[in-house]
Amino acid sequence: MAKFKTINSENAPRAVGHYSLGLIPLAPGLPVYLSGVLPIDTELQIVSTDVQEQAKQVFRNIEEILKAEGLSFQDVVKVTVYMKNMTDFQIVNEVYAGVFGDHKPARSTVEVARLPKDALVEVDVIAWKTGTNVEV
């Protein structure tokens, strides 16, 4: 059984990338909001000056945060990607698609003037923790 219903409309443009127009959770539960995640290690240092390596680290960090709540990327309903340079979009999108596979959460991608620690990419997500007895 699917966890989410994908929103589609014949009267709106379809998604043009590895994302959905929107998702509706099909089970009771609670949203889980993750703060922006940077490409840093446990010593709070940026892992690389390479955007691909930074994107990989961001998603490794997100995976660990999700795991702490018994969640995975398959529970994510919304992603916001912040990038220092939109010319890096394809590189980050390839990492993103590899992480999410067939699952396509709603997504926004924006270019920003500067990120904390001069990172090249930062990502925040909203996930859905299913169940009627969700511990808060």
Describe the structure.
- The protein is an alpha+beta fold and 136 residues long.
- It has one domain (29-130): 2-Layer Sandwich (60s Ribosomal Protein L30, Chain: A), CATH 3.30.1330.40.
- It contains two helices and six strands.
- A four-stranded mixed β-sheet has the order 3-6-4-5, covered by helices on one side. Strands 1-2 form a two-stranded antiparallel sheet.
- Helix 1 packs parallel to helix 2.
- The mean pLDDT is 92.
- Gyration radius, rounded: 15 Å
The helical percent reads 10-25%
Q: How many strands?
A: 6
State the secondary-structure class.
alpha+beta
Approximately what portion of the residues adopt beta-strand conformation?
25-35%
Mean pLDDT: 92
Give the overall shape. globular
Features of this protein?
136 residues, four-stranded mixed beta sheet, alpha+beta, single chain, 2 helices, 60s Ribosomal Protein L30, Chain: A
Topology:
Layout: E1 4-6, E2 23-25, E3 29-33, H1 51-68, E4 76-83, H2 89-100, E5 106-111, E6 121-130
Parallel strand pairs: 4-5
Antiparallel strand pairs: 1-2, 3-6, 4-6
Helix pairs in contact: 1-2
